[in-house]
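Retro notes (design track)

What went well: tokenization of the new backbones is finally stable.
What didn't: we kept losing track of which sequence belonged to which structure.
Fix going forward: every design gets posted as structure first, then sequence, in one message. First example under the new rule, 446 residues:
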């Protein structure tokens, strides 16, 4: 990821003046809003959020239908039927799935019926093929003009009533439901070719800095590949947004302004670097010039320098901008803690924190400046429970420390350290594989 060195330590805000993580998140969520609804084709709606309640426009099934291949009968005709004493009925006709019965079941008669076919008038039970002599008649080459029934069915046996699944007017799905394959299938069954959903947020992603170059270019001495944009875009896509890559803005205000304006048709902008206190850190300055800055420092490590505010779009919209730090781990941690819940709210879902576990620390987490520390850890289940081990050196420039991590172990602001052997809360990163952690719980339920 992009690493910026343009900092001035004496210009950093005092810890006491920084916002807490909770305060900063509250301010982010106060300024982002659910996006408008749109109708999208069903196959593009998987993972999107339903924008309004859905009521059933008709019964499903719309008519009583057969749950089996067999014969529609009147129970009164076969009440005494058994294998030893079958009852023979005349076959009055046949009804296929998708067709309406054109014949009723009258006394002494049956109608051959397929699974899903509407039940003919007069019938009050279905007798499956295997409880008749159909197979024997076919083997003997006899026509199916009559059939011997050796089963006395219960009332309504193998008949699916109209409205068994949903009844006309029922509330089938509530607004806010995240659509999945069963939900999409249900919408299709109700005649929806498109789903009314909250559209995906379009998030413009911009890197800044003279030292940054795109991974597609030949590497130049002294420069860094832009990993921040790609890591951010991958995370945003995973969380349901549509990333729009704006490229790289060099360290001059003219180019930065132009790049930011390119992103004003998006629903949100995410930049990396240019937000701390150095002479070349210009994102805050541009944000103040093109909109307003809400905050620019959070009491956390990594990701202390974090700019947030609103840009004024030509169409009158206020476009949120989240200015990430330049160091790669800082950028990803800031995304997890702030962009992830913001995207959830924009998508019409409840912003929920990452799931957490409690784990025994194998290493001490040090906190020397009163900020909340998010330490990258691997998690292992042992005989005495979950253990968390640091992924190695914790520098915010070390992207490998994040790539190896299962989660972020937290040392609170008011503790100077969380010692090895103590228990810590660990946020589980939602792109990591946590299957091994769940093995014991899964075994208990199988």
């Amino acid at each position: 990821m992009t690493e910026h060195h343009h900092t001035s330590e004496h210009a950093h805000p005092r810890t006491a003046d920084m916002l807490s993580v909770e305060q900063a998140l509250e301010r982010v969520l106060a300024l982002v809003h659910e996006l408008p609804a749109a109708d999208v084709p069903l196959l593009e709606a998987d993972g999107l959020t339903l924008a309004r309640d859905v009521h059933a426009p008709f019964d499903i099934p719309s008519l009583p239908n057969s749950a089996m291949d067999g014969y529609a009968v009147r129970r009164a005709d076969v009440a005494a039927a058994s294998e030893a004493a079958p009852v023979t009925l005349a076959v009055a006709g046949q009804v296929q799935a998708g067709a309406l019965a054109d014949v009723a079941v009258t006394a002494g008669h049956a109608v051959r019926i397929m699974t899903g076919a509407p039940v003919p008038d007069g019938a009050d039970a279905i007798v499956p093929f295997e409880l008749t002599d159909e197979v024997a008649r076919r083997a003997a080459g006899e026509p199916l003009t009559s059939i011997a029934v050796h089963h006395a069915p219960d009332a309504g046996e193998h008949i699916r009533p109209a409205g068994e699944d949903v009844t006309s007017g029922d509330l089938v799905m509530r607004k806010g439901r995240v659509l999945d394959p069963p939900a999409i299938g249900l919408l299709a069954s109700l005649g929806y070719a498109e789903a009314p959903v909250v559209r995906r947020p379009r998030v413009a992603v911009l890197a800044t800095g003279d030292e940054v170059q795109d991974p597609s270019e030949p590497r130049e001495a002294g420069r860094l590949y832009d990993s921040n944009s790609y890591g951010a875009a991958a995370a945003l896509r995973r969380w349901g947004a549509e990333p729009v890559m704006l490229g790289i803005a060099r360290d001059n205000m003219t180019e930065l302004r132009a790049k930011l304006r390119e992103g004003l048709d998006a629903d949100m902008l995410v930049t990396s670097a240019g937000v701390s206190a150095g002479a070349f850190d210009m994102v805050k300055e541009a944000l103040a010039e093109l909109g307003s800055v809400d905050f620019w420092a959070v009491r956390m490590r990594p990701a202390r320098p974090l700019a947030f505010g609103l840009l004024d779009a030509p169409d009158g919209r206020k476009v949120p901008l989240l200015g990430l730090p330049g160091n790669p781990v800082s950028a990803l941690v800031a995304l997890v803690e702030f962009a992830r819940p913001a995207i959830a709210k924009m998508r019409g879902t409840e912003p929920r924190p990452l799931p957490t576990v409690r784990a025994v620390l194998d290493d001490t987490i040090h906190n020397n400046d009163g900020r909340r520390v998010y330490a990258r850890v691997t998690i292992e289940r042992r005989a005495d429970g979950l253990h968390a081990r640091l992924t190695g050196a914790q520098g915010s420039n070390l992207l490998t420390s994040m790539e190896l991590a299962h989660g972020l172990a937290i040392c609170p602001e008011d503790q100077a350290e969380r010692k090895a052997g103590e228990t810590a809360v660990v946020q589980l990163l939602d792109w990591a594989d946590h299957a091994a952690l769940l093995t014991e719980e899964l075994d208990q339920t199988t």
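Added context from the reviewer: The first helix runs from residue 21 to 31.
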